[in-house]
Amino acid sequence: MRVQAAKRLRVVIVGGGTAGWMMASGLAKLLPADAYDLTLIESDEIGTVGVGEATLPHIKLFNDRLGIDEAEFMRATGATIKLGIEFVGWNQPTDRYIHPFGVFGEPWAGVDFQHHWARARLSGIDAGSLQDYSFAVALCRAGLFDHPVVDTQSIRSSFSYAYHFDAGLYAEFLRTWSNARGVTRVEGRILDVARDGESGHVTRLTLASGDGIEGDFFVDCSGFRSLLVGGAMQVPWCDWSHWLPCDRALAVPSGSVTPLTPYTRATARKAGWTWRIPLQHRIGNGYVFSSRWCGEEEARETLLSALDGPGLAEPRLLRFAAGRRARAWEGNCVAAGLSSGFLEPLESTSIFLIQAAMFDLVGLMPRPGGGIDPRLSTEFNRLFEIHYDRVRDFLILHYMANSRHGEPLWDHVRSMEMPDSLMHKLDLFRESAAAPDYKLGLFSRDSWLSVFEGQGVMPGAYARLADHLPLPELERRLSDLRGRIRDGLSGMPTHADFIAGHCAAP
Ligand code: FAD
Predict the structure, then answer these.
(1) Of 50, 108, 127, 441, whose Cβ has the fewest other Cβ atoms within 10 Å?
(2) Residue from 29, 60, 82, 439 carrying the catalytic annotation
(3) Contact 88, 140 (CB under 8 A)
């Protein structure tokens, strides 16, 4: 008896920006090719948002999962290494600290490092800053980089890294990759979205050419337009601009300068902050600001005077609002990327959120011929909320814990009412040195620690278990750790030398 082959599920991805092509390549790699047909529609006329150069270490997992060769990818996208973000002037105007991709210290006697550090400080030991116990911070300050080693006994295993890259080139790279693996690309502007009268599901997209594309399941990667989930399905928007008031960005590339720093710089300004992201062939710069406290001309002057190389184009203005859709999965549509939400560029979380949506979707993807079980969308939306809400709290922390008195934006964010979930985290850290330690999503405990300390939030107590280590022993261990970090730098190549060697033509 012949078994009839199950019908394939027709998945249509709307949009070919970073979100669309990350979705397409991830689904092409991870879903069984004989069960799903993947089509991506993008419009050359509309184009992409064209920004988004800084990433988080998770992007390496994404690339590795696809089997992408790191050197090939770095050559194709002009990528450099990102070991963290240097925050300048976010607490006091003269302060600087690094949020590193790596751990602070190591646990002793089963107790997390920050408790020992807090105890040392509260006991009068000159323990310095948490920053002194991070190998990634030391690498940033010295401008060095080499791949982390596998041996967990070595200090050189205590960090991870991400990339700065040209997001447009990354989307092109993934487009070529996806096309070679069976994703069909359709160029054209979608003019009409048809829905089934009974289920409300999207059934067909009509292009300006008059052609129609039918599908069973749709992934909305149409950027800020949110054509399907925000548009056709009318899923409401949760506005968070009262917590994250920046709503404009001016972006401009500038020429490369030396040294090639292995980190992003985020400098607080009167009405927001500027970014500086070094790529191999240029530096990406931008001013993220609140239109309530700064006009476009003033923002332009602030941005141009912050450049440390010649500007290569006219600054480009982008408008946005912080928030997310109430649900990312509605009916037979899932939003990913800007169409699902945006939390401003601070801490570069957008590309991570695309990646998280892709992996969550693969895990919950409806099977061909089985309809769409509403429990799948409920679970996807639960994960989506967790991802966005955790990032939101972390970003708000950077603003609200500031000492920039007398500047209207900074006075406003310092005195605004914050989410209860963030208030709880702050109180807990102040009372016990405990920091969030999520198994899912962003951000890690060490990320929270770096921003707590950097923004002047200090613990007044610590876990009692830390008292088991005799104080002279604690002092010796702290000093030993600082020495191991210093010694670990010896012989490491500069970031520029690493890039030149690693990315040399094969
Ligand atoms: P887009 O790039 O806008 O793509 C939308 C796609 O949909 C395009 O292909 C478009 O042609 C298509 N489309 C839209 N309407 C139609 C239609 N009617 N018919 C056919 N096609 C259509 N993220 C980070 O992770 N790190 C950063 O450092 C970072 N910096 C940022 C700085 C700024 C100022 C901003 C605004 C964002 C930043 N982001 C950053 C976010 C990042 O840019 C986006 O998450 C990422 O580029 C994904 O965008 P997207 O693919 O969702 O949308």
Answers:
(1) 50
(2) 82
(3) no
